[in-house]
């Protein structure tokens, strides 16, 4: 449990106590945990695998708000701002989660200021990131947004090797396009262009970043 930033400041006893009030949930790739608009009463922490949080427009188009992996939490908004779930959660890979009922969360926050601070830290980071995304939708072109999305995925799921940074994002091309907020064709064109310049190598559901510096420059 303490591998999750939310709970990393807890001592053995407190971590054990909180863990004993948590449930476990496992999902297969593609399974939906909850839908946008559902009543929500649990907060989740990813222990293994990846999930996506997405919203669907009235005409059926999907926008991905975030891809979350091990250690990251979600499902807190419907607790702090009581109301329905603000997004649909779907497993991107087979995934293991820990769940904590919203009713159990308040006593944890009241007695463990470390957990409350870590939660605020994650919420603040999320707001900062969302501001960036909104700014990029207004100010950046699609290739710039693709570069930025790849760098964000690399910072969380990347592994350095001799030939570059291997990013096993586990996303289909469609999902990558939904994350960038552009059509699949435009996103594929940007990826093919980056590949032809030697900045990266495309592999199914993963990418190898060969020239990190150029990609960073394109993202700016
Ligand atoms: P909740 O509304 O309970 O259920 C959906 C969850 O998606 C929400 O809580 C947040 O945890 C998460 N979420 C919503 N918007 C974002 C965002 N912009 N970035 C990351 N996570 C989000």
TrEMBL record:
A molecular-function term among this protein's GO annotations: DNA-binding transcription factor activity
Key word Nucleotide-binding present: yes
Matching SUPFAM superfamilies: cAMP-binding domain-like, Winged helix' DNA-binding domain
One GO CC annotation: cytosol
PROSITE patterns tied to this protein: CNMP_BINDING_3 (PS50042), HTH_CRP_2 (PS51063)
A Pfam short name: cNMP_binding
InterPro entries linked to this entry: cNMP-bd_dom, cNMP-bd_dom_sf, Env_Response_Regulators, HTH_CRP, RmlC-like_jellyroll, WH-like_DNA-bd_sf, WH_DNA-bd_sf
Highest rank taxon of the organism: Bacteria
Stored PANTHER family: CRP FAMILY TRANSCRIPTIONAL REGULATORY PROTEIN, HTH-TYPE TRANSCRIPTIONAL REGULATOR ARCR
Entry protein name: CRP-like cAMP-activated global transcriptional regulator
Species this protein is from: Aeromicrobium terrae
């Amino acid at each position: 449990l303490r591998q999750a930033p939310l709970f990393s400041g807890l001592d053995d006893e407190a971590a054990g106590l909180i863990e004993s009030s948590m449930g476990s949930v496992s999902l297969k790739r593609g399974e939906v945990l909850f839908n946008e608009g559902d009543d929500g009463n649990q907060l989740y922490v990813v222990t293994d695998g990846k999930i996506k949080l997405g919203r669907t427009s009235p005409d059926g188009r999907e926008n991905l708000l975030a891809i979350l992996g091990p250690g990251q939490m979600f499902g807190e908004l419907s607790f702090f701002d009581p109301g329905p779930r603000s997004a649909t959660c779907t497993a991107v890979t087979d995934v293991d989660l820990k769940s904590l009922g919203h009713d159990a969360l308040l006593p944890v926050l009241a007695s463990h200021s470390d957990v409350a601070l870590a939660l605020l830290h994650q919420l603040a980071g999320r707001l900062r990131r969302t501001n960036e995304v909104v700014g990029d939708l207004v100010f950046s072109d699609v290739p710039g947004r693709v570069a930025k999305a790849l760098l964000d995925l690399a910072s969380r799921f990347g592994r350095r090797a001799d030939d570059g940074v291997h990013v096993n994002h586990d996303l289909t091309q469609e999902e990558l396009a939904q994350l960038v907020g552009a059509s699949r064709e435009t996103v594929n064109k940007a990826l093919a262009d980056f590949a032809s310049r030697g900045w990266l190598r495309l592999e199914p559901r993963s990418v190898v970043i060969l020239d990190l510096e150029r990609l960073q420059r394109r993202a700016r």
